[in-house]
Amino acid sequence: xxxxxxxxxxxxxxxxxxxxxxxxxxxxxxxxxxxxxxxxxxxxxxxxxxxxxxxxxxxxxxxxxxxxxxxxxxxxxxxxxxxxxxxxxxxxxxxxxxxxxxxxxxxxxxxxxxxxxxxxxxxxxxxxxxxxxxxxxxxxxxxxxxxxxxxxxxxxxxxxxxxxxxxxxxxxxxxxxxxxxxxxxxxxxxxxxxxxxxxxxxxxxxxxxxxxxxxxxxxxxxxxxxxxxxxxxxxxxxxxxxxxxxxxxxxxxxxxxxxxxxxxxxxxxxxxxxxxxxxxxxxxxxxxxxxxxxxxxxxxxxxxxxxxxxxxxxxxxxxxxxxxxxxxxxxxxxxxxxxxxxxxxxxxxxxxxxxxxxxxxxxxxxxxxxxxxxxxxxxxxxxxxxxxxxxxxxxxxxxxxxxxxxxxxxxxxxxxxxxxxxxxxxxxxxxxxxxxxxxxxxxxxxxxxxxxxxxxxxxxxxxxxxxxxxxxxxxxxxxxxxxxxxxxxxxxxxxx
Length: 496
Hints:
Blueprint: H1 2-18, H2 25-32, E1 41-47, H3 53-65, E2 71-77, H4 84-100, E3 104-110, H5 114-123, E4 134-139, H6 151-158, H7 166-177, E5 178-189, H8 199-208, E6 209-217, E7 233-240, E8 247-253, E9 262-267, H9 268-271, H10 287-297, H11 303-306, E10 309-312, E11 324-325, E12 332-336, E13 341-342, E14 345-346, E15 358-360, E16 370-371, E17 375-379, E18 392-395, E19 404-407, E20 411-415, H12 423-433, H13 436-445, H14 453-458, H15 464-473, H16 481-491
Parallel strand pairs: 1-2, 1-4, 2-3, 4-5, 6-8, 12-19
Antiparallel strand pairs: 5-7, 6-7, 8-9, 10-20, 11-15, 12-15, 13-14, 16-19, 17-18, 17-20
Helix pairs in contact: 2-3, 3-4, 5-6, 5-7, 7-8, 10-13, 12-15
């Protein structure tokens, strides 16, 4: 039993190092079904091929449904030496299946790093050979962060791609290798749909690929449940081109074999809003999302017009480690973490927490502190157990007596030019951001549990008067969700 556990641990560690999560058969089959008609000879790319399940699904679907294709030339990249034999055997199976269907199938397996080899080809630095060109690509790229000084990051930067994750690097290179009209079907984390770090990637994608379909899963763990992956994933089908369609298909399913796929045609302008400089990708995957969008479209105030700023907490604890204290003592001020959120207010200190409760107040730490006042705080990261993606909390100086405060980096805080807010305004924001409407709207473009300050800046808000009225009417911050939603219904829905 111990040997099996050790082996399983080693496998998981290796998968983590490679960013490797193999595609389950139902997901692979669904992806293969999304391709539109293909040319007579299909040049197919499967980058990060794993054991070949995606190419195998592509071939099976082709042999059953596409009589116009006469040949498939498959190019596969897989760096993991442990699954090369399985991949080779799977491609031999594909040859036999194609032969029975009267389709010629040839394949080339590259046991090399896709990013480094293709970056070099595209950058014309190490290879005299021209870049490969493909008519179709089906891919489940590896998911792993890449550091600024890594070989992968340098290779991508050489061809004008700037990203911090392998999967985005794979997709950026693949779209450059597609022939005009070439098709891409990919399963990736949904995290690229919003946030500042993926903005260059979104711009690159939207400028070069026409999106025809977006598919989401009803559960965060649905796509890769066997690997216990809780990253929310999406599948997209796109075509190499420069003009987005008027409408595209948005669909959803549980990810199980034979499951019903619900789908609808959505105007592209509802997926990427015309004047959104961030190019956030909204995916309305539930019935409530459409209603949430309608409500939010009726709001026109911005944080700037309200005289409010949202910032990320200044205290990065590991950089100020020597100044942190587990308990308050003379010469310290409160240091607030997400663990201090409780029932809509800050409960401080929390002496049984693993996080420090205080930070020294001196010349070194003062630039990272803020003057005490009424602040609205939100968590930058929420756990999968939390019901809402956005979790807001009020800091009230009446609850914690201090002249200065430290907000740790896992918090966002709303302020007025570095100072506290009018209390009714802060509570009105609390009501709005904790509402079901905002949660549903936020989920349209955010597939992960991180809430960036940029995301909060791009939201539309009620006007100042509406926020203050809602703030004055909410008597207790620990009111149930129904009460918060009633206030939003009363003062926002009813006036639209």
